[in-house]
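Lab notebook, design round three. We kept the backbone fixed and only want residue identities now. Task for the bench partner: fill in a sequence for the structure below.
Input structure tokens:
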């Protein structure tokens, strides 16, 4: 029987797991580092899951229908997913781009024919580079614009449908594909939906699973006085910062079965080195947050207690949208790069 899908929305999810076999052999790693290739979703990132989740949720609640316009803040991947999945579902998407969004992503938005706005058009967070990004201010600002213009604010940072979709899909996929053999789950966070929903599911299946959060080291955060100019795109801090800087979905699910066992800081420069190394050993071509998460997983794999254990790490996207940055340039050429803080 023919297997022909009627929409790219039907192709989201069921991404494969791939072990970092060659790198492990080369470095004598006894643990099993297993990456989930979320960049094999239709528009190239894990955010396709978010787009499907939030569009399904809004339709079910009667808040949007064919022809509706969605808006949200994005540094790239979420916007690309809303454009792709939204167009397939008969919707329009207007992105508010964070400063430093890579040229590749801006070009993709143009290719989708979107009406592009700047993050700093939102007056509530226009000065975020001086005072830091307060998520509640961002939500208040974008909500105001949606109400004034008659649009629907998709709410990637606050809508619980985000993490619930990962609870229903990403978590079960990992559990089934590993035959329930998951010892560590490693992920960075933009909205927090992936790590929260997947982490909740895995923790319910096995309370001994270690949930590891990954965040940019202080030197890789634009609001830090030690900022080197290199960032881990699409991520926010998940701990050891004032509460208002922690993603909303992490805060809202602390009483819902979610908690980190550990949070690992990764400098962007170290993530860049990991990306270049694993491109050569295993043919991966990872984006910055994927490389940062893999860096954290490699650190865990080097611990004696991790020998023989399965470390599952999320690869949110590939490196194709970062060629204009220092990610894959030789170290001598990798100058300062900037980018968004939430996808």
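Proposed sequence:
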């Amino acid at each position: 029987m023919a297997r022909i899908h009627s929409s790219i929305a039907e192709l989201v999810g069921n991404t494969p797991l791939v072990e970092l076999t060659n790198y492990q052999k080369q470095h004598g790693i006894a643990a099993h580092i297993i990456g989930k290739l979320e960049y094999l979703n239709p528009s190239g990132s894990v955010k396709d899951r978010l787009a499907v989740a939030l569009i399904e949720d809004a339709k079910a609640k009667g808040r949007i229908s064919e022809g509706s316009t969605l808006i949200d803040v994005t540094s790239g991947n979420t916007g690309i997913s809303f454009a792709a999945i939204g167009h397939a579902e008969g919707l329009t998407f207007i992105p508010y781009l964070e400063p430093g969004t890579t040229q590749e992503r801006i070009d993709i938005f143009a290719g989708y024919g979107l009406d592009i706005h700047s993050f700093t058009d939102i007056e509530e967070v226009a000065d975020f580079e001086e005072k830091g990004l307060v998520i509640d201010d961002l939500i208040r600002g974008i909500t105001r614009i949606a109400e004034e213009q008659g649009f629907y604010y998709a709410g990637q940072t606050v809508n619980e449908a985000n993490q619930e979709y990962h609870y229903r899909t990403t978590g079960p996929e990992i559990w089934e594909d590993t035959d329930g053999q998951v010892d560590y789950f490693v992920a960075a966070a933009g909205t927090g939906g992936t790590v929260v929903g997947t982490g909740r599911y895995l923790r319910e299946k096995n309370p001994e699973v270690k949930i590891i959060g990954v965040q940019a080291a202080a030197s890789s955060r634009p609001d830090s006085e030690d900022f080197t100019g290199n960032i881990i795109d699409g991520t926010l801090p998940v701990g050891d910062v004032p509460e208002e800087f922690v993603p909303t979905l992490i805060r809202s699910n602390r009483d819902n079965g979610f908690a980190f066992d550990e949070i690992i800081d990764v400098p962007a420069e170290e993530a860049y080195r990991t990306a270049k190394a694993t491109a050569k050993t295993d043919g991966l071509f990872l984006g910055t947050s994927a490389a940062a998460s893999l860096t954290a997983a490699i650190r865990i794999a080097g611990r004696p207690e991790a020998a023989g254990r399965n470390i599952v790490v999320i690869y949110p996207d590939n490196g194709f949208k970062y060629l204009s940055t220092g990610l894959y340039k030789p170290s001598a050429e990798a100058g300062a790069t900037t980018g968004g803080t939430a996808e």
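Keep this in mind before ordering anything: The chain has twelve helices and ten strands.
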